[in-house]
Amino acid sequence: EAAMHYAKERGKGDYQLYFPSLKTHHTEKLLIETRLREALGGNSFTLSYQPQIDLKSKQVVGVEALIRWEDNVLGKISPVEFIPVAEETGLIVQIGDWVLQEACHQAKIWYDQGFHLRIGVNISPIQFQRPDFVEKVNGILQKTGLPPKYLDLEITENDLLYNRDECYKTLKRLKESGIKISIDDFGTGYSSLSYLRRFPIDTLKIDKSFIKEVIQNINDQAIVTSIIQLAHNMNMRVIAEGVETSDMVAFLNDRECDEMQGFLYSMPLKKEDVIPFINKTEPQKVL
Ligand code: C2E
Ligand code: MG
Ligand code: MG
Ligand code: MG
């Protein structure tokens, strides 16, 4: 109570509570920040790649790059935990550069081996809003030699809330370069639907929270069905995230969802496991 009173006194609707747990949290954040700075100079980041499967052909058509961090001191830390810290401290810019570079480099290696996979890269709003973002992405594509149409930038609805005109220009320039744009976690953000018709977007990724109970929950069924129809009516593709059971696959197939991603087909894989996985699932594929 006293802590709450203290927080209120600090004014301006600041109702933060100063409980020990929060303090620990703060210390933890500082520690993560310190270790992240060190990680940037070393090699404790890696990327995992989760296959994205075309529902009709059952072929792997893309992979999503997901960052992994194993720190000497802190051990393995989930991106859910460290990405927000990286965003608060601005370190996300350097981390994001590394992710883009590494993902495009790897996709080019696969491309040269005859596997023309689209590569999804998660982009933080802080990266996306920087004035040099488009040049940076184009520079990385040029340097790595990956054809732009294989790069798929995943942004979230909330990224498009502010500076709409700037966002629009950025998206348009990326499109003009031939790069693909996906809206990640679609349905969970705050933005209105009006941006969808104005902004050049290729793909909607249905958030996994709508897929989780889609078999049991008729409201989730309605939402998923509507998102698929909305996307198709606007000439966009749809990917369902978090597909864990064959019931879900049947449901998505019936609703003509384009692609799926989830633990049923594959966990995120180490880079050396991606091509063996594809060869195992598609033995008919000959180079
Ligand atoms: P996301 O972009 O929505 O990525 C999908 C997340 O769902 C991944 O978690 C993935 O491992 C997980 N997932 C995949 N299939 C299933 C499934 O069937 N069931 C369930 N329950 N989960 C599944 P991960 O790798 O822990 O990443 C969490 C989030 O961290 C990502 O969500 C993304 O927002 C962020 N993130 C990851 N890598 C990066 C990165 O390189 N840059 C940025 N800015 N954010 C990243
Ligand atoms: Mg994503
Ligand atoms: Mg994401
Ligand atoms: Mg997502």
Automatic annotation (TrEMBL):
Domain EAL intervals: 29-282
Q: Which domain of life is it from?
A: Bacteria
Signal peptide annotation:
none
Q: Mind telling me what this protein is named?
A: GGDEF domain-containing protein
